[in-house]
Amino acid sequence: MAQHLQREIERLKKSILSVGTLVEESLRKSVRAFSERNLDMAQEVIDHDDVIDQLEVEVEEECLKILVLHQPVAIDLRFIVSVLKINNDLERIADLASNLAERAKFLSTKAPTDVPETIPQMAELVQKMLKNSLDALISMDVPLAEKVCEDDDEIDELHSKIYPLVQASIESQPGTTAEWLQLIAVSRYLERAADHTTNIAEDVIYMVEGEIKRHKIST
Q1: Neighbours of 213 (CB within 10 A)
Q2: Which CATH architecture has domain 2-209?
Q3: Low-confidence ranges of the chain (pLDDT < 70)
Q4: Model pLDDT for residues 150-168, shown as the tens digit of each residue
Q5: pTM tops 0.85, yes or no
Q6: Of the candidates 77, 96, 82, 104, which has an alpha carbon nearest to the alpha carbon of residue 16?
Q7: Is 190 within 8 Å of 62 (Cβ atoms)?
Q8: DSSP alpha helix (H) spans, the chain
Q9: What is the residue extent of each domain of the chain?
């Protein structure tokens, strides 16, 4: 029975990493569609979201089946509970990538707008955070997961800078208000994607150490 459980867990690990790979690709393509004003690539991300949604359901069903059939304990139980949460966070990141692609579609129909440097900085860092969180999951690397959590503070700082920039631009160029509001949305999607990536990193820490890091207040 124990060997069967371990085989199921290994298969589950491969499944969640497959979802993670697809989500990484969606996020990368949505960022590229935005930066290159690539309408076709943006639509590709939007169309592919249903595939990730279906895989998320399949992974959840796999987790529940293992819980019912094997009633795992200790680290095996922590792993499955964490995968359930990571699975949900990955699906939400994919949704945000799709939302970003929608904004890319809109902006591709408008005259080019000077994009604040904070947005490409955020996009690059969010993609790095997602890769690191998945690498931490593969190797059960707590220091790498903690680095992801630390990087989220930089994302929040960059996101906070977008509002005064947009306000000043709208005041000086009121005819581009719609475009600048879309850029606020892009920044917000990236900030939220970073939050979900941080959740994944925190769940990796929980897997390894059995300590719930989320919402923990330092003393």
Answers
A1: 18
A2: Up-down Bundle (1.20)
A3: 1, 213-219
A4: 999 999 999 999 988 888 8
A5: yes
A6: 82
A7: no
A8: 2-36, 39-70, 74-108, 118-139, 142-172, 177-209
A9: 2-209
